[in-house]
Amino acid sequence: MKELGIRACWARPYTITTLNSDFNSRLTNVLDRNFNPERPNEVWCTDITYIWTIADGFVYLTSIMDLCSRKIIAWTLSKTLEVEEVLKCVEIAKQRREIKVPLIIHSDRGIHFTCRKYSELTNGMKRSYSEKGVPYDNACIESFHSLIKKEWLNRKVILDYDHVYYLCFEYIETFYNTARIHSHCDYMSPKQYEDLWNKVN
Q: Where do the TM regions start and end (predicted)?
């Protein structure tokens, strides 16, 4: 590999990055790892990941994925972990999508996803939560956040918030959603898969 100039991509081990709320009896896993819904806007999943920059320290990427197509339908980047950034991401998703069926929105048990403001914003949706400390219950969005780091961000020296925003936009909007193929999508991109689904349904 050294002779060919090939360098392995190192993936950081999973670490818990948000505080879990203690409402075990009230937060249920409605999704139950059913990661293959039949139609768009049947199940969304969401999570937050940390990204390190030289000038601004950690910044925080919140993403929402439609599980049918694995498309990232909304994302926000912020310098703080204020709940308003999560709410903004949900608002963007609601504005972009026409929800015609009862919707499940799945997340971990972090305080951003269990607070009153989040409950009010997702009123009418079925809120679903991973079991405490079990990232596999939200495997698809966890996998996306791993991919954006492994395939894109970890290959760069990230200077500041503006730089990482540009990199996230470049990866999500011009590559992941529109060009990166997925076995789940019959080796189409998320956009191609959704376009085909809408055409035949």
A: none
CB distance 62 to 75 below 8 Å: yes
Is 157 within a domain?
Answer: yes
Quickly count: other Cβ atoms within 10 Å of residue 25's Cβ. 6
20 in any annotated domain: no
The count of structural domains within the chain is 1
CATH code of the domain containing 63: 3.30.420.10
Taking alpha carbons only, the member of 194, 201, 200 closest to residue 96 is 194
The answer to the question of residue 11 being in a domain is: no
Q: Which two three-digit tokens encode residue 110?
A: 């972090």
d(CA 101, CA 76): 25
Reduced DSSP (H G I as helix, E B as strand, rest coil) percent helix, strand, coil of the chain, to 5: 35, 20, 45
